[in-house]
Specification:
The chain is 41% helix and 9% strand. The chain is mainly alpha-helical. Strands 1-2 form a two-stranded parallel sheet. The longest helix is centred in the middle third of the chain and has 20 residues. The chain starts with a helix and ends in a 30-residue tail after the last strand. The model has no long low-confidence stretch (mean pLDDT 85).
Length: 117
């Protein structure tokens, strides 16, 4: 997870590959712009697919990552920057503790593959 996020967001070489470093570097990107050459005001959207697979292997870390993202998105908004995250799961029964005092819920407009027409 750390390698993938660091590569996607062009984190600096000193990135520590731990949750504190993720919070720090993601905060830099969300609040001040990317480490790459993105135009000013571009904003950031993180998109995670199959988050249920990550959650099954590292449930505590998966919860903390969502908390970090929520905290950094709120901080970015205060600075009038755009930062959003989309988290996809194939498990309609996936459960998380509230993130930033908000529950994480299944989108009821979605449906399981076996129910698709």
């Amino acid at each position: 997870m750390h390698r993938a996020i660091a590569a996607a967001l062009h984190f600096p070489d000193y990135y520590g590959h731990n949750l504190d470093a993720l919070n720090d570097c993601l905060g830099d990107v969300a609040s001040y712009g990317g480490y790459d050459d993105s135009p000013e005001g571009t904003g950031l959207v993180l998109s995670f697919t199959d988050y249920d697979r990550f959650t099954a292997v590292c449930p505590r870390t998966a919860q903390i990552v969502l908390d970090i993202i929520a905290d950094q998105a709120r901080h970015a908004a205060v600075l009038q920057r755009r930062f959003f995250s989309l988290v996809h799961s194939n498990d309609a029964n996936i459960k998380f503790e509230p993130v930033g005092a908000m529950p994480v819920m299944w989108n009821s407009d979605e449906w399981a593959d076996n129910n698709r027409g």
